[in-house]
Amino acid sequence: MKRIIIDREKCDGCLNCNVACISAHQEGSNFYTVNLQGVDSETRNFIKFDSKTGYTPIFCRHCDEPECVLSCMSGALEKDPETGHVQYDETKCAACFMCVMNCPYGVLKPDTRTRTKLIKCDFCEDKKDGPSCVAACPKKAIEVKEVSL
Amino acid sequence: MNSNFSCKTCASADQKLETFISNLSQETSHHRVEGQSVKCGFGLQGICCRLCSNGPCRITPNGPKGVCGATADTIVARNFLRAVAAGSGCYIHIVENTALLLKKTAANKGLLKGKRALKKLSEIFEIKDADEYICAEKIADAVLADLYKPDYVKMELVEKMAYKPRFDRWKELGILPGGAKSEVFAGVVKTSTNLNSDPVNMYLHCLKLGISTGLYGLTLTNLLNDVILGEPSIRLAPVGLRVIDPDYINIMITGHQHSIFAYLQDRLIESDVIAKANAVGAKGFKLVGCTCVGQDLQLRGEHYQEIFNGHAGNNFTSEAILATGAIDAVLSEFNCSLPGIEPICDELKIKQICLDDVAKKANAELKPFVFEERAVQSDEIIDEIIDAYTARRGDIVLNMMPEHGNDDTLTGVSEGSLKDFLGGTWKPLIDLIVSGDIKGIAGVVGCSSLTAGGHDVLTVGLVKELIAKDILVLSAGCSSGGLENVGLMSPSAASLAGPKLRAVCESLGIPPVLNFGPCLAIGRLELVATELAEAIGVDLPQLPLVLSAPQWLEEQALADGAFGLALGLPLHLGLPPFVTGSPVAVQVFTQDMLNLTGGQLIIDDNAKTAAATLNEIIEKKRRELNI
Amino acid sequence: MKIVIIGASAAGITAAKTIKALDQATEVVVISKESIIHSRCMLHKYLDQERDEQSVSFVPQDFFEANAITWLKNTRVLGLNTEMKTLKTDGNQEISYDKLLIATGAAYFIPPVPGLREATNVYGFRDLKDAQLLDAECRTAKNAVVIGAGLVGMDAAVALLKRGLNVTVIEMMDGIMGLQLDEKSAQTYQTLFEGQGASFLLSEKVVSVDLDKAHRGHLIHLASGKTVPADFIVVAAGVRPSYDFLEGTAIQTNRGITVGDDMRTNIQDVYAAGDVTGLSGIWPNAMKQGKIAATNMLGGSALYTDRYALKNTANFYGLTTLSLGNINPEPEENCDVSIRQDHKNYQKIVSKDGVILGVIFQGDIRNTGFWQYLIKNKINVSGIDKSIFDLSYADFYGVDKETGEYHYAV
């Protein structure tokens, strides 16, 4: 499967991955026009920083053994057998957020406005150029690579 | 030199140039575009603030305000005003130097080549002395006196220079500028940490800076230069890399201050200097035009046919010009003198001398121009360049491109030469506009950039769209450099125009894109617009006239843009000026400005749709004028 | 090989799916008393009419066909012969198996209160059947009473309130969701429910229920002497594992079917997973057990080592809460309790000697998944020089350069 491989040493914390992610999920927007202030401006990837650990890019791994899928009582989260990516079906979700609780890396979150949806990386599956965050990273700290399951 | 540069160069509207650059062994800006292609989203939107140690703060969903409480609107406005203040400062520096030069030239009873410009300025300034030197000195003094006023004392020449309806509107809005230098100062202060947080106040300040920039930095710089160097006159001239003649010692000039070269360019064609060149095997000296000062020289080329070989290209052609190997020295006095020329100069042993420390290049010799020492300085420069020529020629492989550019670019267009061409009156042009043979006028101005599709891509694309819609294009700035090299300023380009404009151009033997020269000549466009408005009896916003800086590059362009908005003109930009993160900025520039000055910002990086929008505006204004 | 799975909820379905994913050739038979596969965690969405029978499913409608699984629905298993490896159904069918997974879950429990068990209008809230019966009651009733203010009781209360009923919740403890919340976070939810019209009778015990002629309970008597009128009653007082049909077998039980880490019972080729094991009452753990059992039935060697079950989330009226571990320590435990709150959030972290024992995050629960790892693995965080509230996975960040998977660098 394809996974976003992280080289944390290269991350400068510019948050372009956040901007790209928000834009990718805000229809019709681009880097100039993306609204970064709205309550619906949700990023699916995170950069944490402290003096000891430096910048740490926290991105959904689409895990080999996805705890989120194993938490889902509505069938909304499924690991696609073809792509290996964990996809989320908003229409099935019952918003129990067991997945948020069980993601060992704290990647998942409820939507801020309604808390009825999960905000989760979809690997920009609808975009032909692949994940928007990867394209937006000026340092190539994140790159898509093929990994064996 | 970094040898790991990208092998992919950016696109250029100038195909021959693109091929030339992609085959170079030197790295150019065109190569570096790829490595900088990933842009910072916060930077693009203007919502990063580095004004204090709590920052840098960026507007994000989790941080909708800076630590201090600054909103996106405040951060964007501060960043924008800072940029406009810097851009204004650049132009005010140019007009200040030019005025000082005129003053000294006049005091020394030096040669004043532009008698008509002198007369025109005397009339505007209401100076009635018979002696031209006294007039010139008084003119220079009046300009300098205004520039040096404090910000709380309004500049006196604004009312004399500006079109009355505009002046009245500016007065109503409270945006008449105080001393131009002080307004830059005030703008910078406003934008410092925890001072002004009112976006509207800051945008009004931008308009103030736009007025001082436009009337002084642009319009007056042109006219003062005309007095010293002679007025433009229309002629056909060669452009492009073909203008470089390797048989000569070639000096590329970059900058915006033509009068700094006034003495040198005359000296270079004196027989003893030519003899020096001959002695080392060259036929003599030639100046090769590049950037805006090259455009200025081209504009006044009628007076400098012997020394000036033609304009080779705009700012982002400068590296390619040097890479031909046939340039022996670069004399720079202002922007755009790209840092990127430095390693090429080092590699090709090209002598770099900076004549103004504001444009000091890292590896160049600094020789600030001193009027009183101009003779000695010029001879020193000549000797150094001869040494460079001797050291490098024979050693450096030439990489010429004689097929680049053309020999029939129409140049020398100005408010004066165009009116002369029309028979001393604007009536023929007005008649053509009224009849619809010329639907309207678009001033396509500003810079060249390597974004918005690539080098000059949007500029050329937009201009082709506009002329096809029978809109006459007047160009000023590095945009001209691109447009002329691709042949749009040659009379044969008439075939690309719409049927009506084409007929007009063919009957007059002119191209559909008229070359006013450097970005400073945006001031000349303002004079044309004002004279047309006066002749028709309307205010500027009513004219079927639009402005576009499709590939605006830098802070000066933003100050120019502020002038355009103050004039009440629709202004198109290809890419947003780092303001889209602020809803207030977007509202002010694209909507509210219509009620303030009549101006309006239009952002569109698509040539077709942008041209369609500008066309609609022109047609709307025509309807409102009942024509 | 033929594997029979009894039960079609989290553990059973996950096991069936896992088997088919690992080995298409294995024959799988699922036996369930239900005729519609559904997620019990979504029953309140059925009762409040947000979802119908189809949309409370957690598998695609064609799950069995697509995976070539035989499904015996509406079928109860009555008995089991582990020597013959057969089982008998209420349809008098005898079904053989090579391996058997018991995933029959649990059933709600009605306390032995006079009148309560006898009443015909007393319901649990466990299966779709219960929700369907309650739905019918909602059409005529005005007053609903929920006994038990745990997560299930509150789920029922949300739905009944949305149906426009007067809802009274009776709870023995002094706060709602007493296993998941502390006083403060419970009070916040209680206020939200009260805002929607719910009444709470806390620290109250039901002592008897008066029945009418039709044997419907209509008046509830409390230990305090108070009475509560009811048109119907929902009992949410806990569940008991369902394994009556094991009677006569040697399968070991102890408040659930006893299993090892590999989900095997003491009898060869018989496995158990999910609530029937009594290991954990929450959905994710049941799924995991089902997956592990399936893997092992096919000869794999997966172990249920992550037995952590003191975890839950709640999401009522847009207020989300994460609750993990020991969140109400006794004073003699000498724990450190850190609390941080603002007008929208309440956060509580219980720790001892640098080890986190429990957390409550009420309000913003973004990116809180890592806490569970810290708690269940007893990670000592005292060496990390920052506020305990600022911890994140970044403090334990580890990436495998080859696979890109994360791990905990501790």
Automatic annotation (TrEMBL), chain A:
Q: Which CDD domains match?
A: CooF_like
Entries under PANTHER family matching the protein: ANAEROBIC DIMETHYL SULFOXIDE REDUCTASE CHAIN B-RELATED, PROTEIN NRFC
Keywords for the protein's UniProt record, in alphabetical order: 4Fe-4S, Electron transport, Iron, Iron-sulfur, Metal-binding, Repeat, Transport
The record, for Gene3D superfamilies, names: 3.30.70.20
According to the entry, what is the taxonomic lineage of the organism? Answer: Bacteria, Bacillati, Bacillota, Clostridia, Eubacteriales
Under the heading InterPro entries, the entry gives: 4Fe4S_Fe-S-bd, 4Fe4S_Fe_S_CS, ET_IronSulfur_Cluster-Binding
Can the keyword 4Fe-4S be found in this entry's annotation?
Answer: yes
Which protein is depicted?
Nitrate reductase
Which top-level group of life is the source organism from?
Bacteria
- List the PROSITE patterns: 4FE4S_FER_1, 4FE4S_FER_2
List residues of the 4Fe-4S ferredoxin-type domain.
2-30, 84-113
- Which GO molecular function terms does the record list? 4 iron, 4 sulfur cluster binding; metal ion binding
- Record organism: Acetobacterium bakii
From TrEMBL, chain B:
Alphabetical keyword list: 4Fe-4S, Iron, Iron-sulfur, Metal-binding, Nickel, Oxidoreductase
Q: Does the keyword Zinc-finger apply?
A: no
For the ligand ([4Fe-4S] cluster 1), the binding residues are 40, 48
Q: Name one GO biological process term.
A: response to hydrogen peroxide
Annotated residues for binding of [4Fe-4S] cluster 2 = 49, 52, 57, 68
Q: What is its EC number?
A: 1.2.7.4
What does the entry list as the binding residues for [Ni-4Fe-4S] cluster? Answer: 256, 292, 336, 447, 478, 519
Q: Which reaction does it catalyse?
A: CO + 2 oxidized [2Fe-2S]-[ferredoxin] + H2O = 2 reduced [2Fe-2S]-[ferredoxin] + CO2 + 2 H(+)
- Pfam families to which the protein is assigned, alphabetical: Prismane
What PANTHER family does this protein's entry cite?
CARBON MONOXIDE DEHYDROGENASE, HYDROXYLAMINE REDUCTASE
Protein's UniProt name: Carbon monoxide dehydrogenase
Automatic annotation (TrEMBL), chain C:
Q: Where is the NADH-rubredoxin oxidoreductase C-terminal domain?
A: 315-379
* Name assigned to this protein: Pyridine nucleotide-disulfide oxidoreductase
Which InterPro entries does this chain map to? Answer: FAD-bd_OxRdtase (IPR050260), FAD/NAD-bd_sf (IPR036188), FAD/NAD-binding_dom (IPR023753), FAD/NAD-linked_Rdtase_dimer_sf (IPR016156), Rubredoxin_C (IPR041575)
Keyword Flavoprotein attributed? yes
The residues covered by the FAD/NAD(P)-binding domain are 1-290
Q: Name one GO molecular function term.
A: oxidoreductase activity
The UniProt entry, under PANTHER family, shows:
NITRITE REDUCTASE [NAD(P)H], PYRIDINE NUCLEOTIDE-DISULFIDE OXIDOREDUCTASE DOMAIN-CONTAINING
A Pfam match is: Pyr_redox_2
* Species in which this protein is naturally found: Acetobacterium bakii
Q: Does the keyword Transferase apply?
A: no
Cofactor(s) needed by this chain: FAD
Report keywords, A-Z: FAD, Flavoprotein
